[in-house]
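Input.
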Amino acid sequence: MKIAVLTASNNATGNRTFACRVQELLHDQGHHCYIWCHEDFTTSDELCQLCHQHAVTTIIGIHAYRSGRLLADQATSCRLRWILVLSGTDVSRFNSPIETKTMLLALKRADVRVALHDYMAKAMALRLDLDPNIFTIIRPSIRTHNPPQTTYDWSVITKHPNPTVFLLPAGLRPVKDVLHLGGAMARLHHEQPNVFFIVVGPVLDKAYAADVQSTALEWPNVCVLDAVPQVSVQDVDDLYSKDRLLWAIPPISIPLLWLSLAALRRLSFIT
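Output.
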């Protein structure tokens, strides 16, 4: 089977990383998978023509609005099977009347609808007056390979007898609101000097990233690291190295829930 995944062109985005993982999985299963950028298509006719040229029969569209717009106006003569995957900004950002109408039509026309979290399915269903059960929930997972190479001085953390480290994997752009959580962590550090906050991610908005990096210099417990390629991490123990540390990874879309992690005593992925 030949399949095409529609996603963003920027290799540093989470959606693009997700698309690459899907592509690798499909290749392992004996299918051929292309990754195309949804921004390269002005109309659904252009997409259908390219699919015909490459004998593609199934589309996996990541982003109910950006990819879904190509399904919303798809001609009935274009016989493609669509799997539409919700992204975080579908739920939180694209809410104009036109965007909402486009996503509603696309979701109704899709053969399969996927959400990566229960709350995403429920939020979108409530907003569009849909049955939340139409979404298949496929929770994200983490696969790792080789230990990362960073220049961070871990002794800043390990010198504390019982350090608590919060790790936020997030591209530096306004929607992630890193400064809000960083400020809260900095204030908490004054009360609990063993609390640290580390942000790992690529620069997606240069102006915002510069603001984050300069502000972080004023916070003694906050560190901003470059993106770590997924091929440079071997396993959880290699990534975090000190099993006596408390590592907590707050959910990126709802960072204020980090408070609920205080009682944990192990590495925690909260979804």
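The chain is about 35% helix and 20% strand.
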